[in-house]
């Protein structure tokens, strides 16, 4: 896939800048290779010194390069990026818009905040490249309030440098679980009902989103990868990862240590290898939550041996989702952790569809009974998958499906623990809760 503007993966000079040649990162650390000291935001001059500028791609040539790269979305669904950009471009007679989605409503994830706060120019490069490719004149950068200063400063630097041919605007994402769902992001941008998924008739937002225009909503990590593909090409992107799952992924790894760690890893390698854990270490935690609260649980043994790909995660009924890897310590009750999260997720539903209005409350109540009052659970543990079945596939968005997957996989991984609750009653542990629940949530998942 070469064209006159295609950057090769050898060192090259930044077009017309007089800067020295830029070498693509050789190892598995790519996005994070650009992070500055002490996590300060990287300014424009430093950014261009590190990466050079993005060359101009003519017509649809970058779409071919994206397809060749095999890049998929990192916001949760792992949808091919090139396919999405093509469909927005096709619908683009009415001037499309691009949304760089950095809402990161998932409480256990922190990788998008690192990108927008520390590497805002890499994300903006990807968003502007997307706008140029699909024919959009406007980019919205949808980020939590804490990231607004860094992103606004970066936009201002670019404006002064006359870098971008399109308008870029920051929009504050509310601190809600659903804020980053794509129709909810559109609702926030147009000021309708922030962080609430909406129904736009039969048309996807790719055809009819912000202001009725075709709208490309792309996760900020996906855009940052696209910005590097724009510089170094598909062949370079495929040098790590597997043929089916090329490139790298940002993971937010939470365990016994104080703060979550943001790690960049090649797709396809065993998770245990990345975390430098062997199967013997699996005794020190009792389960792994992959993907976040819309993802699912796997046993320590399976997680450590599993190749880090979305397909492998799906085989275990889970998902890589937004890249969350939470190692649940052995000193907490897994069922009370699951109950806290399900109560939180139930409170985060937008209250528009049956499964959210009725189903999730009943499900949260049943999981709470299993965790804290097992004698009150009518029908035993088997009642819970039945309740999951009643909400799955019935919402206008995938929120209820994510909750059901979280619960179903928990019952599979912690089935023995559930049986113990029914025999002996709930656990009495003094360990502090493990999985994070935002303090601002209306229902914080307490008992
Ligand atoms: C309940 C729910 C929450 C979501 N939250 C986010 C989010 O916080 N950030 C995000 O990028 N995508 C989120 N998504 C996925 C978006 O709808 C959308 O698919 C994504 O932003 C597209 O970008 P990608 O193709 O690069 O992954 C969420 C989806 C659902 C169903
Ligand atoms: S399923 Fe729930 S979160 Fe999704 S649109 Fe319906 S009410 Fe809102």
Keywords:
447 residues, alpha/beta, Rossmann fold, Ubiquitin-like (UB roll), de novo design (two linked rop proteins), five-stranded mixed beta sheet, 16 helices, 9 strands, globular, disordered N terminus, binds flavin mononucleotide, binds iron/sulfur cluster
Describe the structure.
The chain has 447 residues and is of the alpha/beta class. The protein has three domains: 31-237, NADH-ubiquinone oxidoreductase 51kDa subunit (Rossmann fold, 3-Layer(aba) Sandwich); 248-329, Ubiquitin-like (UB roll), CATH 3.10.20; 334-424, de novo design (two linked rop proteins), CATH 1.20.1440. The chain is 39% helix and 12% strand. It is globular, with a radius of gyration of 22 Å. It binds flavin mononucleotide and iron/sulfur cluster (SF4). The site of flavin mononucleotide has 24 residues, from β4 and α15. Iron/sulfur cluster binds at residues 178, 197, 349-353, 355-356, 395-397, 399-400.
């Amino acid at each position: 896939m070469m064209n006159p503007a295609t950057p090769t993966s050898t060192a090259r000079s930044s077009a017309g800048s007089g800067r020295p040649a830029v070498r693509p990162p050789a190892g598995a650390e790519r996005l994070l290779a650009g992070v500055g000291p002490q996590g300060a935001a990287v300014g424009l001059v430093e950014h261009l010194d590190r990466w050079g500028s993005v060359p101009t791609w003519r017509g649809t040539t970058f779409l071919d390069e994206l397809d060749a790269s095999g890049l998929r979305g990192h916001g949760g669904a792992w949808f091919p990026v090139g396919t999405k950009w093509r469909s927005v471009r096709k619908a683009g007679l009415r001037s499309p818009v691009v949304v760089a989605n950095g809402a990161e409503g998932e409480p256990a994830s922190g990788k998008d905040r690192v990108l927008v706060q520390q590497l805002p120019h890499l994300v903006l490069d990807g968003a502007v490249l997307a706008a140029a490719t699909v024919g959009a004149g406007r980019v919205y950068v949808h980020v939590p309030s804490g990231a607004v200063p860094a992103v606004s400063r970066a936009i201002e630097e670019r404006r002064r440098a006359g870098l971008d041919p399109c308008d870029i605007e920051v929009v504050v994402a509310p601190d809600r679980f659903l804020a980053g769902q794509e129709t909810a992001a559109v609702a926030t941008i147009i000021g309708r009902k922030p962080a609430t998924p909406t129904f736009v008739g039969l048309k996807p937002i790719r055809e009819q989103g912000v202001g009725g225009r075709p709208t490309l909503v792309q996760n900020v990590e996906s855009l940052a990868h696209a910005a590097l593909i724009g510089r170094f090409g598909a062949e370079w992107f495929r040098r790590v990862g597997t043929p089916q799952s090329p490139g790298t992924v940002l993971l937010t790894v939470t365990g016994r240590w104080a703060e979550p760690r943001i790690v960049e890893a090649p797709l396809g390698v065993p998770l245990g290898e990345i975390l430098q854990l062997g199967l013997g270490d699996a005794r020190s935690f009792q389960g792994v939550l992959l993907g976040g609260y819309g993802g699912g649980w796997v046993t320590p043994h399976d997680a450590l041996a599993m190749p880090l790909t979305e397909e492998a995660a799906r085989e275990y009924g889970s998902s890589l989702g937004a890249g969350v890897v939470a190692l649940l310590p052995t000193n907490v009750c897994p069922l009370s952790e699951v109950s806290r999260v399900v109560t939180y997720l139930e409170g985060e539903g937008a209250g528009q569809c049956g499964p959210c209005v009725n189903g999730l409350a009943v499900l949260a109540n049943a999981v709470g009974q299993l965790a804290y009052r097992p004698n009150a659970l009518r029908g035993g543990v088997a009642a819970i998958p039945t309740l999951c079945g009643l909400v799955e596939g019935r919402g206008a968005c995938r929120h209820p499906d994510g909750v059901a997957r979280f619960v179903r996989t928990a019952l599979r991984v912690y089935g023995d623990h559930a049986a113990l609750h029914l025999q002996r009653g709930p656990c009495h542990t003094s360990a502090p809760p493990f999985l994070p629940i935002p303090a601002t949530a209306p229902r914080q998942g307490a008992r």
